[in-house]
Amino acid sequence: MNLLLDTHVALWAITDHPRLSSRARQLILSPRATVWVSAVSVWEIAIKHALGRGDMPVSGQDALHYFRQAGYRFLAVEPEHAATVASLPPYHQDPFDRLLVAQALLEPMRLMTHDGTVARYSDTIIAV
């Protein structure tokens, strides 16, 4: 299964954060899962960490290092991903999350998120 982690789930996984549910941990560690992190998440981490946001405990550069160390694969943003955002229902206004949803739907991948609003986009999104 191709599993795309949303930004917070990816951060919780590399920092062994207690908010990462046992179900999420089990799916991420499954030998059947190929775990992906989007360039969107690295961008979000870099921006919000530079702004001093407390929910981004590492810099973009550090996140890249930890994601690579964990063996995660990286998903680039393609023009088709960006264009698909316009066709999504207006459930969520966060541009990072909307682009992650578009990527997951187009690739296709199973997006893992902690955000119930993001999970409304598709029954293929895994809410943890």
What distinguishing features does this structure have?
128 residues; alpha/beta; 5-stranded parallel sheet; 7 helices
Instruction: Please write the string of helix (H) and strand (E) elements.
Output: EHHEHHEHHEHE
User: Strand fraction band?
Assistant: 5-15%
Task: Report the sheet with the most strands, covering strand number, pairing sense and barrel closure.
Answer: 5 strands, parallel
What is the typical, i.e. mean, pLDDT?
Answer: 96
Low-confidence stretches: none
Spatial strand arrangement across the major sheet: 3-2-1-4-5
Count of DSSP helices?
A: 7
Shape: globular
Number of strands: 5
What class, by secondary structure content?
Answer: alpha/beta
What is the C-alpha radius of gyration, as a whole number of Å? Answer: 14 Å
Distance between the termini: 16 Å
Helix content: 40-55%
